[in-house]
Amino acid sequence: MNRRTTIALALTMSAGLALSACSGAKPAPGSGSGPGSGKGADTFEPVHVGKGFTGKGGNIDVLMSSDFQTLDPGNSNYVQTANVGQLYYRTLTMAKETAGKPPTIVPDLATDLGKASADGLTWTYTLKPGLKFEDGTPITSKEIKYGVERTYARDVYTQAPQELNSALADDGYKGPYSDGDFEGIDTPDDRTVVFHLKQPFAEFPALVSRSNTAPVPRAGDTKLDYTNHPVSSGPYKIKSYDRGRSMKLVRNDQWDPATDPNRPALPDTFTFSLSTAQATISRQLLADSDPTAITLDSAGGLQASDAAELDAPEVAKRTASGLLGCTDVLNFNTETIKDPQVRKAIALAIDRQAVQLQYGGNRFGQLAQSYINPSQRGYVEQHTDLDPTGRPKLAEARKLLAGKQVPKTLVYGYADATPKYKNVGTTLQQNLKQLGIDLQLRPIPSANYYTVLAGENMPDIARSGWCGGADSGSVRTTVDPNIGPSLDGRTYGFSNIPRYFDPEISREMYELRGANGSSEELGKKWATLFDRTMQDYPLVPLVRSFTNSVVGSKVRGAQVGYFFGSIDLSTVGVAR
């Protein structure tokens, strides 16, 4: 359930991924024999570099084209932050990655996945003994509660994850800075946390794997400045951080590995370069000029022109890959493009095949027909008039616009650190020109991209991505955050980029949040509501990502996280 930054949304959750196997020898990743080529799905099987490596020591260089949008676990709905965050903060439960499969929810700070009351309205967690912050002070239930409380201060933390909050009995709580103590969570002793829910929520253990439950010491809370040095509860801590330039993580000597079977913490240090051009990143990785380097950038930082080099034997053996739960979409601002028929016409006019080519073609992902995917529990077939091969339907689009008030000019916003997103805009310009619409391209600084999309300067059209099913495998974890209503059901939700709000559909979504039933049953209801929503075309599905990520020749234990969409930092090590 998390937003993808330059790619990495992904706050999202553990159904199995269905990939069909075909007989005979398996093609190399990206060989062109995957979906869309008429051959099979083996192209999208995961590849793990140096699996099983357990050696400790050394440094990992992480090359990135832009800084993290935030390092504050209480103000993050971003996949890149979740990836690096697992190194310096822990949560009650954890979404543990396995290449090519949705994550599995496992205990982290808590001793187990929680105990629900008979009526399902309370969940109780017990903390493991001996937990400490980086300064040696104990981690108690009070710091867990305070971490959650901060995320209610939406006037301060505009990108705080809200899925957990929407499930809790909050009575209009506005955060610790204005409202004091939160009655939706009890801490009867230092090791016990009790959550009170509005309605039963069967997948609650997935919700407390979100960064909301990362412990925050009240005395160390510097509000928006907390991003500069969040207090570590994990195996690493921040030694230095020069915003927009570099960051270094070193071992946290107060972390006890006996309490944490999920993080092997192999390297001694992680060094982050936060302003390297993507073209430079790809050249360095392909040439192996830094044997300890990896990247968290979208599509492994690779450019479309690099695709052929992935077949070189020396590069192929250093390429981790996997099909993700992550899908990119185009969002239509429904407050500026108000007519659903106009939105549908624009959607039909888009050449999604050409867009896929800007992503690098079939090697880098499948054309998507929906934001949700068949690996999510409760998936039902979605109905769409989009051509399944991605070809535009200009005749149908023009027919829909007959007699309509068509905007003469629209604005497409894109993250400026990623060339392919600008190239997508160029493709869209050509498509919309066929409808008599002049599409202007507006670069947005990558570090502020989703903040802009959530604010007053949201463009008419903007790309975003979401990693669906990353916390629990449920359809809800894609539908509710991306198209659902606000916490009170009166308007669109905070991460609903299209700002879509239909009085009837949104009311049904709001009521469904409190419904009883199995994950499969409720997922089908969410999927059906999403299908109805998509008849209004608030967004257009583009590509479900397959990431190839080249790593340095000394990097081991490298896997592409299904949720993270990039190398999972918690598993990597360095051969010495």
From TrEMBL:
Transmembrane segments: none annotated. InterPro entries: Peptide/Ni-bd, SBP_5, SBP_5_dom. SUPFAM superfamilies: Periplasmic binding protein-like II (SSF53850). Pfam families: SBP_bac_5. Keywords: Signal. This is Solute-binding protein family 5 domain-containing protein. Residues 24-44 are annotated as: Disordered. Residues 1-20 form the signal peptide.
